[in-house]
Design goal:
- The protein has helices at residues 46-50, 98-110, 181-207, and strands at 33-36, 40-41, 44-45, 53-57, 61-63, 67-71, 74-78, 82-84, 87-92, 125-132, 138-149, 166-172, 175-180.
- It has one domain (28-181): Roll (Pnp Oxidase, Chain A), CATH 2.30.110.
- A hairpin with a 5-residue loop joins strand 10 and strand 11 (138-149).
- Helix content is 22%, strand content 33%.
- Mean pLDDT is 79; it is low at 1-7.
- By secondary structure, it is an alpha+beta fold.
- The chain is globular.
């Protein structure tokens, strides 16, 4: 005997026009984020200067060239390695110059007084960026691994304007990992439902 027919659960839309159906969108916003630099460098705590960050750009993954492998008379191609160009940070500066002290101290973790580079694991740091939804809950987190500054900032001083001093830094980064709270919950629920459905079908097969 086969598995009995299971009635699918659906929605009865008879008598409902499309004009009466509304959809609420909850979208990510470009300002609902926070930078976390949890390191003590040159006497300055990372969380102290994190709040001075105004702009951040990261990602820009690209595969420069396709790799190929000769296999008999044929060639097989594969994607190759993903290159991450850089991370750019823009800071406003406080009167105590904590941002400058932090990044200049970070630079001196890389190169000693004789001009030699220290081992990479001495100066690479992890940086975290959290994105939040409208309720204030963390919806996604990006972990930037293997970061270090690629430049000392250009300092634009001018009498022609009275703007706040902004400093731009470019960081090298090894990898960017993304975790999503909503995605984790969605995956867990999907796994539970999939396991329950699979178990129910298995029981039905045993019965019939």
């Amino acid at each position: 005997m086969g598995i009995p027919f299971i009635q699918p659960l659906g929605f009865d839309l008879s008598g409902i026009s499309f004009a009466t159906i509304s959809k609420t969108w909850m979208l990510q916003r470009t300002f609902n984020w926070q930078l976390f630099m949890p390191h003590l460098i040159n006497g300055v705590y990372g969380p102290l200067i994190s709040s001075f960050c105004q702009d951040i750009k990261f990602g820009d993954y690209s595969i420069q060239t396709l790799g190929k492998m000769q296999h008999g008379a044929f060639q097989r191609f594969y994607a190759g390695l993903q290159d991450i160009d850089s991370v750019s940070l823009s800071f406003i500066t406080s009167v105590d110059n904590a941002v400058l002290d932090y990044f200049y101290g970070w630079y001196y973790l890389m190169i000693d007084k004789e001009g030699y580079y220290h081992p990479k694991n001495n100066y690479t740091k992890q940086i975290y960026i959290s994105m939040y939804d409208r309720s204030g809950l963390e919806s996604a987190r990006f972990t930037l691994k293997g970061c270090f500054p690629k430049n000392k900032p250009l300092i634009p001083l001018s009498y022609s304007s009275e703007d706040v001093l902004r400093l731009n830094f470019n960081l090298s980064v090894d990898t960017v990992e993304m975790t999503s709270l909503v995605g984790s919950i969605r995956g867990a629920v999907t796994n539970v439902i999939g396991g329950a459905v699979g178990g129910a079908i298995g029981k039905l097969k045993e019965m019939f």
